[in-house]
């Protein structure tokens, strides 16, 4: 799986520990962030997992940025994308590339309180029960089919920080469970509903089989269809030193600082935004961020992106 994160990375940490304990039949192969100093990147690097900061400032359009992410994820052969506190909307090219293969964790009982600061929204509204939701992403904010939810009672003396802390514990639990169910091929999307199949209904499908997620849609065919509609232009990956040192490993990026010049990416007009997240860099942050990027190059670490063809090392 590939993880998108903008903040502390505690949901990422929960996934990494669950994989290490053997609770999830899968592993995290890449972590991407839109924030250079996101602690989530360091959590990945400490385990030798490729971790990339991709600066939105280097892309003139949001769709270009998302297509770059799609290229990175595909080069790492990602089958499931997890938004673990990712604070940007995702555009239709990304959603279509990972239809029913990208999930988000949000700190409210959706459809109540989508967007930013869901915990604050809940307290201000005066609800007695809050919680969190894991859902597949779609073209709308915090809107896709719901996989799992957990309820968290609101106490009389709760503030945003205390409520957020209790919700976060439940986020860790149900996110791990949702990923485990996905990896076991036990989720089936039927319109707005997600059925959780028991062992007898799996029918011998391998873990993560596409048929369990989107009936009659084969993953390879879905990828090809998305590629045809949303062409991706990404420079090739070069072999380089891994984050933890040692011999070069193909597909990882060097830490040197360089000036980046991005090649143009073909993007159709008219795409709209989506997204969602649960854990930001500040307490109580949820939902996606509408902050956009501007064009132009700037000094960035080599892990920011894939090298351009013919670029000097």
Question: Can you give a write-up of this model?
Answer:
The chain is an alpha/beta fold and 313 residues long. The chain has one domain: Rossmann fold (3-Layer(aba) Sandwich). The protein contains seven helices and eleven strands. The strands form three sheets. It has a seven-stranded mixed β-sheet. Strands 8-9 form a two-stranded antiparallel sheet. The C terminus is likely disordered.
Q: Tell me the number of helical segments per DSSP (H or I, 4 or more residues long).
A: 7
Q: How would you write the strand order of the largest sheet?
A: 3-2-1-4-5-6-7
Oligomer: single chain
According to CATH, the fold-level topology is: Rossmann fold
Please, what is the CATH homologous superfamily? Formyl transferase, N-terminal domain
Broad shape: globular
Tally of DSSP β-strands:
11
For the record, give the distance between the C-alpha atoms at the N and C termini, rounded to a whole number.
29 Å
Low-pLDDT ranges: 203-278, 281-313
Strand count, sense and closure of the main sheet? Answer: 7 strands, mixed
Gyration radius over CA: 19 Å
Helix- and strand-based class?
alpha/beta
Tell me the strand percentage band: 15-25%
The count of domains is 1
Order of helices and strands: EHEHEHEHEHEEHEEHEE
Percent of residues in helices comes to 25-40%
CATH architecture: 3-Layer(aba) Sandwich
Average pLDDT number: 74
> What is the top-level CATH class?
Alpha Beta
